[in-house]
Write a structure and sequence with these properties.
about 35% helix, alpha/beta, Nucleotidyltransferase, domain 5, single chain, 6-stranded mixed beta sheet, 5 helices, 6 strands, globular, disordered N terminus
Length: about 170
């Protein structure tokens, strides 16, 4: 099913429902594509994007900057799950062929709670929405995603530069 196709949510949606978006994506996916897909899915589920409590994906997406940008856009944490944390999901032959897992979006979302909306596709991403209870704590779901940056390298370089600067100043 693609973004433009519509079908009813899998279960009735309470007014105050909170969501977790399970995301699968290829390297060609952009943050704009993922944001648009999440917005389309939440609209299809009859919920505002403000109902989102977390975006989650498989741990192999730890360096997918587009996921970090999407989570920042929605102001929610990005959580990563390992193989053992994934919920059973409908087999996706293309996902199985590409990464050796039966599914990502639905398996990740369903680990948070019952699926509200099964997998929807855009050109380079998939999204599934799950209901999470009122006591859902994203910090207890999967593991925190640490933004992939060269912060350590920058910090190290800054420290080295500072040291060199001090040495030069001491030698003068």
């Amino acid at each position: 099913m693609t973004i433009g196709e519509r079908r009813k949510p899998a279960i009735a949606v309470p007014n105050q429902q909170k969501l977790v978006a399970g995301i699968g994506c290829g390297s060609a996916a952009t943050s704009s594509e993922i944001i648009a897909l999440i917005n389309a899915c939440s609209a299809e589920a009859g919920l505002p994007p403000s109902a989102l409590r977390a975006i989650a994906s498989h741990q192999r997406k730890h360096d997918a900057r587009q996921l970090y940008a999407a989570s920042a856009h929605f102001g929610v944490p990005l959580r990563l799950l390992g193989d053992a944390e994934l919920a059973p999901a409908t087999l996706s032959p293309s996902v199985l062929a590409h990464i050796g897992l039966p599914a990502v979006a639905e398996a990740v979302a369903a680990a948070a709670g019952p699926l509200l909306l099964g997998k929807r596709k855009s050109a380079h991403a998939t999204c599934a929405l799950a209901a999470c209870g009122p006591d859902f704590d994203p910090t207890q779901f999967g593991r925190a995603a640490l933004y992939p940056s060269s912060s350590a390298a920058i910090a190290s370089s800054t420290l080295d530069t500072s040291r060199l600067g001090h040495r030069r100043g001491a030698q003068s």
